[in-house]
Amino acid sequence: MKDFFGPFTAFIEERFDLTPLRRWARHKKVPQHKHSFWYYFGGLALFIISLQFVTGILMAFYYSPTPDTAHESVRYIMEKVHYGWLIRSMHFWGANFLVAVVLVHMFSTYFMKAYRKPRELMWLIGVLLAGLVLAFAFTGYLLPWTTLSYFATKVGVNMPMVMPGIGGFLSRLLAGGEDVGAATLTRMFTLHVVLLPILTLVLVTAHVFLSQVFGSSVPLSQKGYSEETRFFPTFVLRDSAVWAGMLAILIAFVTIFPANLSSKVNPVMPAPAGIKPEWYFLFLFQTLRTFPEIPAIAAVTIGLIIWMLVPFLDKRSAKGERSTFFTLFGVAILVYMIAMTMMAYITTEVH
Ligand code: HEM
Fold first, then answer.
1. Residue 59 Cβ contacting ligand 1 at under 6 Å
2. Predicted structure pTM score
3. Can you give the pLDDT at residue 1?
4. Which residue segments constitute the domains of the chain, with CATH numbers given?
């Protein structure tokens, strides 16, 4: 078969020594065992986040972040720009898929105890990335300037209010004033397209770099497994197949359910009844509705800190021993999140 890349590779090789890269590609192996399936989710998150960057940049050519123009510019993208509806719908559904994939990736690495020494930093960076992904979702939500996005953001930026002392300051910082308005829109836009992407690029690079340094971990239950797959080309090809499958599912999804654009907000009108956040914030929303606010926020904050510090608290798995307590802790968190989400669905009307 003709080597199409031959002249290109020769050009590079005459100028750079590719031996270390070739050696790395030849030697890198991926463990193959009963739970190897979960190794695909990190790569999948990487793929979807890259798609979000591409579709987001394409939309930024047309989007205009002011209360007078935001909604119209999104309508223009949906109705006038060639394939604008496809790009916006991919961005909208991509965000939902990304949150879901990141959650699966986080819980699967948790239950496989992949956070244990030496991958503690990968876990810590991972938790920050999960926070960034949610921050992307929150800041992006306001941008179409619809009734729903306006009032949901109002609920969100008012949430810190219940914190004693700094609550009011935090709310004003998020909103850029006393209420959600033009300043909030500029603020959310800047966070969404400048600050969060920069932070994400830095952290994703560090996370993926560390995943290459350490390689994939082997769950304690699979100790003594014997098989390994070559990273290149076998695992890379499998990863590519998973990514292609994801792209096919995403495109099928957006063609059947294109993102809709509800009516433009009229901020002087009262909030419509039954405003509730997107599915991934429901467990938090329901927590605040079910329990008194200050203890609820304190409990969530403490839970989050413990979650971040798990690699350092779980001394047993660091020594290669089973740590049933932390498995049960993970199950408890997962069950709580699912139960609260379901409760929120049952007790509020669905939009
Ligand atoms: C944008 C978000 C993220 C991206 C793009 C990403 C990407 C990746 C990639 C490519 C890998 C290597 C393949 C794999 O083992 O799956 C990986 C591994 C890992 N990630 Fe993430 N990740 C993200 C978020 C997270 C989160 C939220 C956590 C946990 C809090 C996390 C924790 C880990 C850990 C512990 C590993 C090592 C897995 C092992 O060696 O078995 N990551 N990640």
1. no
2. 0.94
3. 57
4. 31-273 (1.20.810.10)
